[in-house]
């Protein structure tokens, strides 16, 4: 069975394919209000946090085209690299809809809270983050 994916094309000519989280665990992960604002504030303060605006060219999913708004690239101090694809709803709520790399699927199948733990590290434990990019 083919996995559902999202294909993101960036303005620098590169592309990245994300696994659809509904395909893995049957749901998307809703973000607490203020999550993206907190990451933006950290990007202004912490030298290892970066904000990239205007870097996304197009997004296409196996369910069609979507107006998704951000990518969160996280490299932990332990060396784990993972990217999350997120969207912002009409009401302004953020949610995580995709994950990269494909090997992260096994982690999520074993531990559905892995994403929540990594998002917590991104906002609450910046000392455990080697590099973070918030891409719009």
Ordered list of secondary-structure elements with their pairings:
Elements: E1 5-10, E2 15-20, H1 21-25, E3 29-30, H2 35-45, E4 49-52, E5 56-61, E6 64-65, E7 70-76, E8 81-88, E9 94-100, H3 104-110, H4 114-124, E10 129-135
Parallel strand pairs: 4-10
Antiparallel strand pairs: 1-2, 1-5, 2-9, 3-9, 5-6, 7-8, 7-10, 8-9
Relevant terms:
136 residues, alpha+beta, ten-stranded mixed sheet
Count of extended strands:
10
* Regions with little confidence, pLDDT below 50 for 5+ residues: none
Percent range of helical residues: 25-40%
Biggest β-sheet strands, sense, barrel:
10 strands, mixed
Rg estimate, integer Å: 14 Å
- In DSSP terms (H or I, runs of 4 or more residues), the helix count works out at 4
CA(first)-CA(last) distance: 31 Å
Measured by DSSP, the beta-strand proportion falls in: 35-45%
Structural class: alpha+beta
- What do the pLDDT scores average to? 90
Tell me, briefly, the overall form: globular
SSE string? EEHEHEEEEEEHHE
Structural notes for this entry:
25% of the residues lie in helices and 40% in strands. By secondary structure, the protein is an alpha+beta fold. It has helices spanning 21-25, 35-45, 104-110, 114-124, and strands at residues 5-10, 15-20, 29-30, 49-52, 56-61, 64-65, 70-76, 81-88, 94-100, 129-135. The longest helix is centred in the first third of the chain and has 11 residues, at 35-45.
């Amino acid at each position: 069975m083919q996995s559902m994916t999202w294909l993101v094309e960036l303005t620098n000519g590169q592309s990245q394919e994300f696994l659809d989280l509904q395909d893995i665990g049957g749901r998307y992960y809703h973000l607490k209000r203020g999550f993206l604002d907190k990451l933006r504030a950290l990007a202004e303060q912490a030298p290892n946090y970066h904000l990239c605006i205007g870097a996304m060219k197009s997004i296409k999913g196996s369910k069609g085209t979507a107006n998704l708004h951000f990518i969160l690239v996280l490299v932990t101090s332990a060396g784990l690299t993972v990217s999350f694809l997120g969207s912002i709803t009409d009401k302004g709520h953020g949610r995580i809809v995709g994950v990269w790399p494909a090997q992260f699927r096994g982690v999520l199948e074993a531990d559905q809270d892995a994403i929540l733990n990594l998002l917590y590290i991104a906002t609450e434990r910046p000392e455990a983050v080697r590099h973070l990019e918030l891409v719009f």
